[in-house]
Amino acid sequence: MGGGFQFIDIILFALVAAFLILRLRSVLGRRDGHQGPAQDPFRSQPQKEAPEKDVVRLPERGESAPLPADIASATPQGGLTQIKIADARFEEKEFLSGAKVAFEMILTAYVAGDVASLKPLLSPEVFANFSSSIADRAAAGETLETTLVGIQKAEIEDATMVGRMAHISVRFTSEQVTVTRDGAGKIVDGDPDRVATVSDVWTFARDTRSPDPNWTLVATGSSE
Fold this sequence. Notes:
Number of domains: 1
Number of helices: 6
CATH topology: Nuclear Transport Factor 2, Chain: A
Shape: elongated
Mean pLDDT: 78
CATH class: Alpha Beta
Helix content: 25-40%
CATH architecture: Roll
Structural class: alpha+beta
Strand content: 25-35%
Low-confidence stretches: 23-74
Number of strands: 5
Largest sheet: 5 strands, antiparallel
Distance between the termini: 117 Å
């Protein structure tokens, strides 16, 4: 009698074990030889190597290196990328905001003949040209009156790295009223009632390794 109960217990245990095995197989699945190797979630997966021609090698910080010609010459963005590599602090929007302030300061100082204010903002060559023009104006007994009505647009037209020096050319589109008067106050050029739209291209430069964040005006050009 006791042996019969033991036999029944063995059968029940076997049925329970079989049931558990089937449940585990249905939940976890089983490998049939067609799956790929098991993935280790803590192991980085191998990346496909890009063709060598598609790789733009980044130089060491503070160094400048030319980008591929098809990138660097297509838009100013190639030059801006080089500048950002050389100076991680560079921000395009911040630069343009500062360039507009510099445009107004330089224009105002030039009109007033304020060479002391101009000197730290200009390269030696540009300062020499501005100073000479101011001196010629004073020698002729003329005064210049320019009212900057507003800057309609300031956009980067070109950007390059030359060694450690960053150069950015900005086209300013502004509205100005300009009048030149002689010693007697008579108008010799310009019209006080005419607002002219003026297009200026100014190039600023900065040593990207210098702790001084200020840019210097190194070239000017204008066309109406």
